[in-house]
Amino acid sequence: MVPERLTTERFELRRFTRRDTDGLALAVRRSLPDLQLWLPWAHPGYDRDEAAAYVRDSTQSWREGRAFDFAIRPLDDDDGHIGNISIWQVTRMGRAGEIGYWIRSDRTGLGIATEVTARVMALGFERLGFHKINLRIAVGNKASERVAAKLGFTREGVLREELLIRGRWVDHTLYSILEHEWRTARTEAIRG
Question: What residue spans define the domains of the chain?
Fold first, then answer.
């Protein structure tokens, strides 16, 4: 069973509800100049209806166990919606999952993506039983590449023309971390 709420030192990650719709739409609109470079769904016309559809789809995916999307919110203040993070299974037989995330533009560079991704990695390995977790990062997205490096992911290679974004095919770099690598890194950090 996947918990509906996770916490880190600074953030609450919780399952989406209808009350997140307005905050999500506002965060996306405020972050469009950055998000539209990397994500096909982030476009100038993004509105409340699209945010509501995302929340409905997220609720359905959660119910079916296909994906677990979390709204990211600060623990210590009411700064509203500051991003999303999701984890889903890529292959049951290979026990592989994937994580995707985005952080509101005015909150990037503060270690948020690293902190919440580390927490969701723990969920994937400890609760979902994954052997491997992937990140697919658009080539050129230096901030996400730094997150992968900080968390011990290995660069596996480039997926050519992986995603069509505003009429342009974008390559993605595939990063992965194996369960034993994650456990070793955690143990070394604790001994630190």
Answer: 5-191
Alpha-carbon distance 124 to 141, whole Å?
24
pLDDT tens digits, one per residue of 33-69: 999 999 999 999 999 999 999 999 999 999 999 999 9
Print burial letters for 14-37: b (CB count within 10 Å at least 16), e (below 16). Answer: bbbeeebbebbbebbbebbebbbe
Length of the chain in terms of residues written: 192
Mean pLDDT of 20-25: 95
CB 158 within 8 A of CB 139: yes
What span, in angstroms and rounded, lies between the C-alpha atoms of 101 and 147?
11
- Sequence-distant contacts of 58-65: CB under 8 A, at least 24 apart: 58/15, 58/16, 59/15, 59/16, 59/17, 61/88, 62/2, 62/15
Q: Are 34 and 104 in contact (CB under 8 A)?
A: no
Please give the Cα distance from 159 to 139 (Å, whole number).
9
Nearest of 165, 113, 120, 112 to residue 140 by alpha carbon = 165
CA angle 187, 188, 190 (to 5 degrees): 65
CATH of domain 5-191: 3.40.630.30
Check whether 189 has a pLDDT greater than 90. Answer: no
Paired residues of 158 in beta bridges: 173
